[in-house]
Amino acid sequence: MKRLTALALCLTTVFTLGTSVSAADTLSSTTAGSNTSSQQVKGTYRDDTNATVYSVDIEWSDFNFEYNKGSKGTWNPATHKYSEPKPAGWGDQTGTIKMTNHSNANVGYTLSCEVDSKYSDDFYLGTSKDSSLGSTTGTLKTAEGTTVTNAPSTQLTIYPGGSLPAGTNDENVATLTITIGAK
User: Fold this and answer.
1) Is it the case that residue 107 has pLDDT exceeding 80?
2) How do 56-60 and 74-76 pair as beta strands?
3) Which are the contacts of 144, defined by CB distance < 8 A and separation ≥ 6?
4) Is residue 111 domain-resident?
5) By residue range, what is the domain housing residue 121?
6) 56 vs 101: CA distance, rounded Å
7) Number of independent structural domains in the chain
8) Is residue 38 situated within a structural domain?
9) Residue 35 to residue 37: CA distance in whole angstroms
10) Is residue 68 scored above 60 in pLDDT?
């Protein structure tokens, strides 16, 4: 009984095994040199190039600026002098924008500034103390071949300029916009 069961399993296994079948030609001829067979060869082109993935970190510092009208300081009656004078203006206040490219392609950026019309006569933002920012453009190189901590980055420093009218208190005076795109 064991032998019949083993034989049945063996035959089942043999008959269920997959076989590879390809076309076959049988050539027969009585004339030498006239025996030929042809096969179409097919090919497929695949475009397996890597897709471009854009990933840019944008870090904004605090952009809350304070304009000081200026003062002589605090009067000291013991010395008859002012102490700690405050110059008019913005002082050394700045804001920064850091952009880091984690993309597998170069990335272009445009920084633009729109000052609220209520303040546009006197207030401006710039990339230096005496410049007015319309728009600034640049390119961040691809992150391919770099580590995450050494990814290509740039930092823009923004300075407030001009003045603000008296009574301005924690109001939106301008909007900075960064636009990222393929380069």
Assistant:
1) yes
2) unpaired
3) 104
4) yes
5) 56-182
6) 5
7) 1
8) no
9) 7
10) yes
> pTM of the predicted model, to two decimals?
0.68
Instruction: Find out whether 71 and 86 touch, Cβ atoms under 8 Å.
Output: yes
Partnered with residue 161 across adjacent β-strands are 124
In a domain, 161, yes or no: yes
* CATH number assigned to the domain comprising residue 113: 2.60.40
Q: Please choose, from the candidates 90, 85, 28, 60, the residue with its C-alpha nearest in 3D space to the C-alpha of residue 155.
A: 60
Q: Give the mean model confidence (pLDDT) for residues 155-179.
A: 92
Residue 77 lies in a domain: yes
Q: 103: exposed, middle or buried (C-beta count within 10 Å: 0-12, 13-18, 19+)?
A: buried
* CA angle 36–38–39, rounded 5-degree value: 155
- Angle ∠(117,130,58) on CA atoms, nearest 5: 70
Q: Grade residue 6 by pLDDT with cuts at 50, 70 and 90.
A: low
